[in-house]
Design brief:
Layout: E1 7-10, H1 16-27, E2 31-36, H2 40-52, E3 57-61, H3 67-81, E4 86-89, H4 104-132, E5 135-140, H5 144-147, H6 153-174, E6 178-185, H7 198-207, H8 216-226, E7 238-241
Parallel strand pairs: 1-2, 1-4, 2-3, 4-5, 5-6, 6-7
Helix pairs in contact: 1-2, 1-8, 3-4, 4-6
The protein binds NADP nicotinamide-adenine-dinucleotide phosphate (NAP).
NADP nicotinamide-adenine-dinucleotide phosphate binds near residues 15 and 91.
Length: about 250
């Protein structure tokens, strides 16, 4: 994939899927700005790997749910990198609980990060992408935003909301040659699931047709493709990467 000269901003690049997306975009030629909130050491380690590939890169601390901070950050990245071509809204969290026990705090936290965080970044890059008549946006959602998941009303609602957001922004920015897509992973082995039991992971693996769980690079390869000119006629899509877990 030829992403030479492109500038990408990846949210939540400090861990898991966001780290692998950042590395793969860089391997394909892009300069990469990545964000973190708590894992600064990990974010800096990703930046070092990207520097070793000869790309321009920098880590930025931001809470994706803070509208004002995100607008400021995007402006700073554009100033420092000179332009922006790619936004990957990947940062996310879960805080599970069945509906009869879910607190307002749990609901708000997940909606604010997983849904509002995606809005905050798209809102910040949209004027630039519209003006330059180009841009690629990829939102990392989840198969649980498509099918629902026991114990995840907040997370499933946020991820479903991000799908509606993706399709609407695809329509609004289409005439400015901006592609907007969503990737919906099934269960991928990252820190997000480090506390789950082996039994739970085995059950999730058995839901796939391959009897295995996905890896972060399974998501990253699709994201790099969606950001390339090879995917120029794909927009408003939600592409599952789940080993058939959904079917
Ligand atoms: N893993 C899966 O099975 C799976 C399946 C479907 C969808 N997804 C989605 O894929 C994305 C990445 O998941 P992952 O498994 O790689 O998760 P992860 O390992 O827990 O990493 C989450 C990333 O999001 C960042 N983040 C969380 N809250 C933030 C906030 N308020 N402000 C800024 N950054 C924040 C974290 O930054 P810090 O740690 O630096 O704070 C971290 O970089 C998420 O949107 C997730 O919902 C994952």
């Amino acid at each position: 994939m030829d992403l030479d000269g492109k500038v990408a901003l990846v949210t939540g690049g400090s861990l898991g899927i966001g780290t692998e997306i950042s590395l793969d975009l860089a391997r394909n030629g892009a300069d990469v700005a990545l964000t973190f909130r708590r894992h600064e050491k990990e974010a800096k380690a990703v930046v070092e790997q990207i520097k070793a590939m000869g790309r321009k890169t920098q880590e930025y601390k931001v809470d994706v749910s803070d509208f004002g901070a995100v607008q400021k950050l995007v402006k700073q990245v554009i100033d420092e990198f000179g332009h922006m071509d790619i936004l990957i809204s990947n940062a996310g969290m879960n805080w599970d609980g069945v509906i009869w026990k879910m607190t307002e705090e749990q609901w708000d936290a997940v909606i604010n990060v997983d849904l509002k965080g995606t809005f905050n970044f798209i809102r910040a890059v949209a004027p630039t992408f519209r003006e330059q008549k180009s841009g690629k946006i990829v939102n990392i959602t989840s198969i649980n935003g498509l099918r629902g998941k026991f114990g995840q009303t907040n997370y499933s609602a946020a991820k479903a909301g991000a799908i509606g957001l993706t399709k609407t922004v695809a329509k609004e920015l289409g005439k400015y040659s901006v592609n907007v897509n969503a990737v919906a992973p099934g269960m991928i082995l990252t820190d997000m699931f480090k506390e789950l039991s082996e039994e739970f992971k085995q059950k999730a693996a058995e839901e796939t047709v391959f009897n295995r769980l996905g890896q972060p690079e399974d998501i990253a390869h699709l994201v790099s493709f969606l950001c390339s000119e090879k995917a120029k006629h794909i927009t408003g899509e939600v592409i599952k990467v789940d080993g058939g877990q959904y079917i």
